[in-house]
Specification:
globular, alpha/beta
Length: 402
């Protein structure tokens, strides 16, 4: 049954000065809020290894943010911003970033009403010769509600990854109220980012340094990765009062067979770094159900966890995915999820969550409330009273599921 939730019940006062506009000079210098058994305390993030239970499996999202924001200009002089969301032609991320000459993306287009059928040329106010040589152009193929299909063409034979690197800017969150700066190129990216595709960083991971990771691994904690490409939907507020009317965007993810086997055999806690890792790991249960019931994996729908009772154990579900991969000679699972985790959700896999502090009335705050059984006010009141910094470049927390 889809829960009846009013988004205004998940509001709190967040003054603009509490939003961290820039990262601290050192990644691991941020504060760390610790929530365990209803009790709240604090430490420094660089000491987080002391909080991770021995024998845990700790999972990170190794997606990489791409410079997906492009600025074009019409013949009339009007500026059009194009924000690349996900590849359309070709559809696979790896293939997309290797193509030369042309490709199509699903995009959010600013001022789309002012873009008729003319070809746009990249805005190049400084007459940068490298940008000029790229000759990047954009044509509107189709409008699809809030998004549009855009075809990009360019010359000089460069792969599209290089095109974005030269012509695009890192899409920092709109609530920072500033343009992208050089510091964002390094700091709006985790140290372990590997696979291009996200248009927003999995920000819980921004605090980790090599020293912190080494300290965690020295304490009998196994680290592994998933890859969920974060979509622009992560920025979208819940506009309807009833959360049931909010639409989640699809996000593709990849989980390897060795990680599945590790999850099947684990005896300790499962620690997820970031809400993107949580959504990936929790989606696995429902992917496994599909393998059991239909013989193959497929995408997880938004309200799938709430619409029926599931008789299968987590072990049975994960084993079904692993068996499917082995039977088909595959070493990784590739599907998508629209899962929304809200109060009333029953967690199947994740025991501990490392995460930043989220916007009022957001789906991410709903996830936190679900994880701590409604005790989110206790956590956020403490953070506000103790001068924690909020949102993407803000401080961190480690939450133990109630």
């Amino acid at each position: 049954m889809i829960p009846e939730i009013k988004i205004e019940d998940y509001n709190y006062p967040l003054p603009d000065e509490r939003i961290a506009k820039y990262p601290l000079s050192e990644r691991d210098a941020s504060k760390l809020l610790i929530y365990r058994n209803g009790n709240v305390s604090q430490d420094r993030f660089r000491n987080i290894a002391e909080q991770i239970p021995e024998g845990s499996v700790m999972v990170f999202n190794d997606t990489k943010v791409v410079p997906a924001r492009l600025h074009f200009q019409r013949e009339s002089g009007a500026h059009i911003e194009i924000f690349c969301l996900e590849p359309v032609l070709p559809e696979e991320y790896v293939t997309m970033f290797a193509v030369t000459e042309r490709c199509r993306w699903k995009c959010i287009v600013g001022n789309v009403k002012r873009w008729k059928s003319d070809t746009l040329h990249l805005y190049n106010p400084l007459n940068d010769t490298e940008i000029e040589d790229m000759g990047l152009k954009a044509d509107l193929v189709e409008r699809c509600g809030e998004t549009s299909i855009v075809e990009f063409t360019w010359k000089n034979g460069a792969p599209f990854s290089k095109v974005l690197e030269i012509c695009g800017s890192v899409p920092i969150p709109p609530y920072l109220n500033r343009d992208t700066e050089n510091i964002d190129l390094e700091r709006y990216q985790t140290l372990y980012a590997r696979f291009r595709g996200s248009v927003a960083a999995p920000t819980a991971g921004l605090h980790f340094t090599e020293d912190v990771l080494n300290e965690i691994r020295s304490r009998n904690v196994v680290t592994d990765t998933v890859c969920l490409h974060v979509g622009a939907g992560t920025f979208l507020p819940v506009k309807s009062s009833n959360v049931a009317e909010h639409t989640m965007h699809r996000e593709p993810f990849v989980v390897t067979l060795p990680l599945l086997e590790r999850l099947i055999d684990k005896t300790g806690s499962l620690v997820a770094v970031g809400t993107t890792s949580v959504r990936t790991l929790e989606s696995l249960y429902y992917v496994g159900v599909k393998c059991i019931e239909s013989g193959k994996p497929s995408d997880v729908d938004q309200w799938e966890p709430y619409t029926r009772e599931y008789p299968y154990t987590v072990q049975e579900s994960l084993n079904a995915i692993a068996d499917y991969l082995r039977a088909n000679g595959l070493d990784e699972l590739k599907v998508g999820t629209r899962i929304i985790i809200v109060p009333g959700y029953e967690f199947k896999l994740v025991d501990v969550l490392v995460t930043n502090f989220h916007q009022p009335q957001s789906t991410l705050l709903l996830l936190i409330s679900a994880f701590v059984k409604g005790d989110w006010h206790n956590i956020y009141d403490f953070a506000l009273e103790k001068d924690f910094r909020f949102l993407s470049y803000g401080d961190s927390s480690i939450l133990f599921r109630r």
